[in-house]
Design a protein that fits this description.
six-stranded parallel beta sheet; binds NADP nicotinamide-adenine-dinucleotide phosphate; Rossmann fold; alpha/beta; 8 helices; single chain
């Protein structure tokens, strides 16, 4: 049975992806700042290579090598660019971009040894057109899309595919927090009116696309950015 690792698996999209991959028959481990109280859920900050290595060592001991990696941990910050401190900038880039560097580099030896691997990076639909007051987040997520394309070329010969799923407008704690703070420019209901499929996205929508990209039959798909956004960013 294949082993998968999902970062940010304690909440929202990452949690739904972990549940879906489990239902599809994989062993699934998760890492998160606040892990769920369940088997194979580890606490690790993706910006710390030492914490990722420690979690991976535990996963190796419990499950064995990891050949599926989903990078879903992420963090936003709404602030005008001119008011950002370099520390604000650095933390957002660290979590959303450097976290992908750490986890990907940490699991690569397992995938290379197996001659098979699937990496799916959860980026953001904000990369399609930009987003005011979210410049470091959009910059980091855009870099994740670029990293996805470069790694697809580099790792394809080893049987490893690398794709990105940029979600748009998905009903998670992150989205509801932004609604409460008045950061959405309206309510979720208002946005539904402006969404071609006339509903908010569900974490399960992202999980379905991710599960497909992790499957055996997606082996000829790599370097792709598969938008899942109800038609909002086409
Ligand atoms: P969420 O509910 O806040 O889940 C994100 C998870 O990542 C949280 O459990 C969070 O832990 C964890 N996390 C944050 N920083 C971390 C770190 N340094 N190390 C380990 N775990 C960390 O948000 P979500 O909406 O499901 O977002 C999942 C992914 O989708 C993110 O990458 C996000 O940027 C992306 N995304 C979401 C939407 C949307 O509409 N919801 C749109 C575009 C992109 P804590 O809660 O403890 O901080």
């Amino acid at each position: 049975m294949r082993n998968a690792l999902v970062t940010g698996g304690g909440s929202g999209i990452g949690k739904a992806i972990a549940e879906r991959l489990r239902a599809d028959g994989y062993n699934v481990a998760t890492v998160d700042l606040n892990p769920l109280d369940e088997k194979f859920a580890y606490r690790a900050d993706v910006t710390s290579r030492a914490e990722i290595d420690e979690a991976l060592a535990a996963i190796h001991a419990e499950l064995g090598p990891v050949t599926i990696l989903v990078n879903a941990a992420g963090m936003e910050k709404y602030k005008r660019f001119r008011n950002l401190s370099f520390e604000d900038w650095q933390r957002i880039v660290d979590v959303n971009l450097s976290g992908v560097f750490h986890t990907t580099q940490a699991v690569l030896p397992d995938m290379s040894a197996a001659g098979w691997g699937r990496i799916v990076n959860i980026s953001s639909s904000s990369t399609h057109g930009g987003q005011p007051f979210m410049s470091p987040y959009v910059a980091a997520k855009s870099a994740v899309n670029g990293l996805t394309k470069s790694l697809a070329l580099e790792l394809g010969p080893e049987g490893i595919t690398v794709n990105a799923v940029p979600p748009g407008f998905i009903d998670t704690p992150m989205l509801r927090k932004n609604e409460e703070r008045g950061l959405l420019g309206g309510t979720v209901e208002d946005h539904i009116e402006r969404t071609p499929v006339r509903r908010v996205g569900r974490p399960e929508d992202i999980a379905a696309a991710t599960a497909f990209l992790c499957s055996e039959e997606a082996g000829y798909i790599t370097g792709q950015i598969l938008g899942v956004n109800g038609g909002r960013n086409t």
